[in-house]
What does this fold into?
Amino acid sequence: MDLNIIYEAVLSYNVDGVKEGVTQALNEGMAVDKILAEGLINAMDEVGKRFSTGEIFVPEMLMAAQVMKEGMELLKPLLASDASESKGTVVIGTVKGDLHDIGKNLVAMMLEGGGFNVIDLGVDVASDTFIDAVKENNAGVVALSALLTTTMTAMKETVEALASAGVKNTIVGGAPITEEFASDIGAAGYSKDAPGAVTLTRQLLQAA
Amino acid sequence: MNSKERVLTALNHEEPDRVPIDLGGWVTTISQVSYNKLLSHLGYQREREVFDWLRQNVAPEEDILQRLGVDTRYVHPGEPVGWKFEPEETKDGLWVNDEWGCGFLKPESSLYYNLMTSPLRDASIDDLDSYPWPDPKDPGYITGVKERAKQLAEDGEYAVIGNFAWETWFERAWKLRGIDKFYMDFVTNPDFINKLLDKTLSLHLEFLDHVLGVCGEYLDVVIQGGDLGSQQTTLMSPQHYREYIKPRQAQAVEKIRSLTGAKIFYHTCGAVSSLVPDFIEIGIDILNPVQVRANGMDAETLKKEFGGKIAFWGGIDSQQVLPRGTVNEVVDEVKHLINHMATGGGLVACAVHNIQADVPPENVLALFDSVRELGTYPISVIN
It folds into this structure.
């Protein structure tokens, strides 16, 4: 079976097509990793590219992530339960004082689409909560989001607290965040959009 | 030239005596935290209560507006009779259900009330008929409105701005549905979206009938809005915008034109330069807040492409300069805006969006004072 069928179904937000495709591929005895990589992750990479180049927008991103997730649900029970078999674990959250989440949710969806195990701590997250989650889940990367200029201080504090706790791979993003700010606060990386966050995460975890 | 003439001349794409300046509107005012610091800095022994509960902003007082040289004065709707702002204390913070049934929470850690529950998240298209919609003709909305607008118009000193976005028919819709569900509906459930937006728009048009019916003749500008952009680009494709939003924006413009000769101000955050030709086409007169750090929204590019066709209201960066810049950097930011946008009129200067809690009083003063000092026409490039 040509995994391109699943790939195309993701790109056309066809949830039935994705589920049928994944089921068929599994029935044909195809390796789960291969279905994941070539059917789903490749498709989400393409979705990310199209978003970054302005070909698709928030509605299409959300739809693609949704159908991809439904395909993933069929594969999850069959993937090795050992987290280290996944591409790595990312802890993500919006920093203390900030309750905005749509951007953070888009990043979380893209990271899942990229094959990462994502621990989403939600919004208004204290530094300690980030630190605990990293330790409990053996996370390789922490991703922080802030939409408000007034919570950029919290972002700085969290990056510093994580660094003190030995966690160096902290990436940051959000509308008022810039490369310069990220560098000033000692973050390991900055991305202006969700697909960029996936690229950064891959780089950091490959280097690990 | 007085303030009113200054603003109207600029909005007519002619050069007034100097660049007009705004403070005090729905999206051009100042947070309570920042305002009270400003009061203290200026030596006042008083504090100001919150006027906009959602954003925790104030309506600045007359003496401060005078001190800052503000050219606009606002007419706000009255408080509705059918709903009261009565926050409830919960373990997570202060909770409020707004007039539309959306739930908002203000935890200790947050400066604002935040949307938490969207009552139409799981609704079917038929549920829209039986939903308890608020009353756009609530008599409270027009309490004092005619008197205030008439007084301002008869005094003739300041541009009279009608603050009548009513949180926008577009944003009401996604707050009710949940923003993620709403945007996915664009792709999978167009019938639902069309019915929901028709409903929120029709309520908005009735609201406009109600408020502009009593004060339209006195107004110079009417505030409208609905966010269409993110930092990088539009939130939806231009095709979706033209399918779902543009025709409805046009209906709102038509309604306003039938009720007042005032200029139409449209607020949208984000990188929306690709939509500006559409705004111009349907008759929007003013673009706000001109989020200059968003992609493609720098002053120079916007003026080159759209100068003379739409007026710009905003432009002083609040993502980096106002909160974290020095006074000199604020002054430089003002110079940049004036140098690139003021020639030929068409500019009303103010902060990009409301002045936030992290903007120090020195920067607030630098913003207003430098626009007044540096914005004299004819503009010659200032270094």
About this structure: Chain B touches chain A at residues 105, 107, 109-111, 114, 179-180, 183-184, 186-188, 230-237, 240, 318-320, 323-324, 356-358 (CB under 8 Å). Residues 190-215 of chain B form the longest helix (26 residues).
